[in-house]
Amino acid sequence: MEGQMRIMIADNDEDVVVFLKEAITKIIDQYELFTAGDGVECLSFLKRNRPPDLIFLNLNMPLRSGVECLQIIRRNYLSDSTCVIIYSELHNMRDIDKCYKSGADFYMVKPDTVCEAVNMIEGILNQLGRREATQRLKNEFVIMSRKDMIS
Questions:
Q1: In the chain, how long is the greatest CA-to-CA distance?
Q2: What is the domain count for the chain?
Q3: Beta strand 106-109 pairing with 31-36
Q4: For position 94, which CATH number holds?
Q5: Predicted pLDDT of residue 126
Q6: What average pLDDT does the structure give for the chain?
Q7: pLDDT, tens digit, 9 for 90 and up, residues 9-59
Q8: What is the per-residue pLDDT across 76-105, written as a single tens digit (0 to 9) for each?
Q9: Helix and strand tally (H, E) in the chain?
Q10: Is the pLDDT of residue 151 over 50?
Q11: How far is the C-alpha of 96 from the C-alpha of 106, rounded, in Å?
């Protein structure tokens, strides 16, 4: 992605927004960050603005969940070039399947440290560099830290 990357983080927990921003800052030199405190605010932003290159959606937000937002924005606001990452603390297969079928590009199990977040986001960006027009294979869809793979 050339030039300044446009990134949105939609989460009702300001600490998570700060955490993800810290990780993003360690990876991407130039970016413009937009935030939304819930799903309705996220959708309102997308209705009025050019879509970001990358969207992080918390699975469990108030007013509209990450999946509800994903379904609406995939239908109405985003081009295929926008990468949508749904994230959650849980590694629930039902949620993962629903996100995959709804058109998320990745499902990220929330990391515990900024270092883990950096590694996970770098992995996503590397995969985007090799991106094809089709949806990601299921075995590339879930992004988690090594410790989560073991447990």
A1: 43
A2: 1
A3: unpaired
A4: 3.40.50.2300
A5: 85
A6: 84
A7: 999 999 999 999 999 999 988 899 999 999 899 999 989 998 899 999 999
A8: 866 667 889 999 988 888 989 999 998 899
A9: 7, 6
A10: no
A11: 9
pTM higher than 0.85: yes
Phi, psi of 114, deg, nearest 5: -65, -40
Which domain, by its residues, includes 64? 5-150
DSSP states of 57-103 as a string? Answer: EESS-SSS-HHHHHHHHHHHT--TTSEEEEEES---HHHHHHHHHTT
Q: What are 144's two structure tokens? A: 């988690």
* Contact partners, residue 34, CB within 8 Å, separation at least 6: 6, 7, 8, 9, 45, 49, 52
* Coil, helix or strand at residue 123: helix
| Token couple for 25 | 């800052």
Contacts of 22 (CB under 8 A, 6+ apart): 114, 117
Report CA dihedral (120, 89, 35, 122) to the nearest 10 degrees.
0
